[in-house]
Fold PLP-dependent lyase/thiolase.
Amino acid sequence: MKDMSYQAVMGRRNEIMKASLGIDFSDYIQSPIAFDYERMMRETGYGLEDIVRIQAETKVGNTPLFELTRLTEAVREFAGPGKGARILVKDEAANAGGSFKARRAAISAFEAKKRGYAGLVAATSGNYGAAVASQAAMRCLKCIIVQEVFDSRGVGQPEILEKSRACEAYGAEVQRLSVGPELFFQLLLTLETTGFFNASLYTPFGIKGVETLGVEVAEQVRARYGKDPDAVVITHAGGGNLTGTARGLLSAGCDNTRIVACSVDLGGLHMASDTDFNRKSFTTGHTGFGVPFATWPDRVDVPRNAARSLRYMDEYQLVTQGEVFYVTELLAKLEGLERGPAGNTSLTAAVTLARNLDRDQIVVVQETEYTGAGKHHNRQLSFARENGIEVRVGDPRENVPGKAIVIPERLDQVRGSVQDMDKLRLSYLRNAAKALPVAQWSDADRAFLAADIKKDLDWVASAAAHI
């Protein structure tokens, strides 16, 4: 009988991962830093036409692209002369499961079925759970979702509880945990005891699935406006959304489209903290995921992460919780679209971009998500008040994560803030130096690092000299 203690299960994690994914990551790993990323992506065996076909089988993809004419006009009222780019939104809530995550889940479910697994397991508190459960249902696979839901008082975050209900509606079993380090152990334990497929967010299958989103954006904008989008804004958390979309845009030839990441600023809150867990109103798409995953992607449940956001990112904007709540309400009242908070994070950044771009330029928000009772912004604000957070109207620059949510009075107060990209890149290199000291970096390591932070070898050499 196997030893199922914490130490024993964690000690078998490489063996469990290999059995649950069918990928031998050691075939690609070249050093503690470098691995053959593009070969790993190619060897999924799926081309673009394959993925489009697989996704269409389970009601995923070919979602509508809407021009937000009233929101664009509202921005032009305060933008400078000749400014106020068109704002478009890709309505990913139209996918089965209600979000872009269905694109990832569709490929994992297809792969699991093809290899003869009886079911899928995913560890996620985001929309991915509903997406995996929805896809598993259509492929006649069992499904288990492992979620961090509660703090130590047993109080559940309403947005996550809403997602739990969605998973169960699709027939999945949901394992609800309190916040803490046991999530990864529980995932490994479930994978080993069930023999199910690991539908991790960070496998090459998942990222290949999102590439169709970037391709569709390119094709739909060209068909309607005869040009490429000038900027695509992407809500950033673990990096898969940005990585897959950017790879799709590049494969469609959008070489000059600016890739803009956006996260809700939750600076000062610790995501693994029991006391901070319920002092935030956004469960993903915030800096608690966005910054650490950008500056060291290989902190996930697979040996090498296929989501590598700094490799594709041109700009990183932060917005406040109050700004996102304000834009969420505006989207409903101006455009008649009531959608969940994740896509509205990047929509908030799109407002700040559009005010500074010319009127003939195009900004695309590449996702929306379904909403529901627990995800609704009014429930989130009520929950914040119940947890002692001050909620008021005023200048959003007075937001203090975990203490005050300040909702703008006017759209022109929505400004966000741009992050120092080189500071993020330097942080990535410092994390790489923890994995392998700079003095031991080979030419292959330096080339990998340069590609992974979208810089050249000279920049890496100069930065490394100061680590």
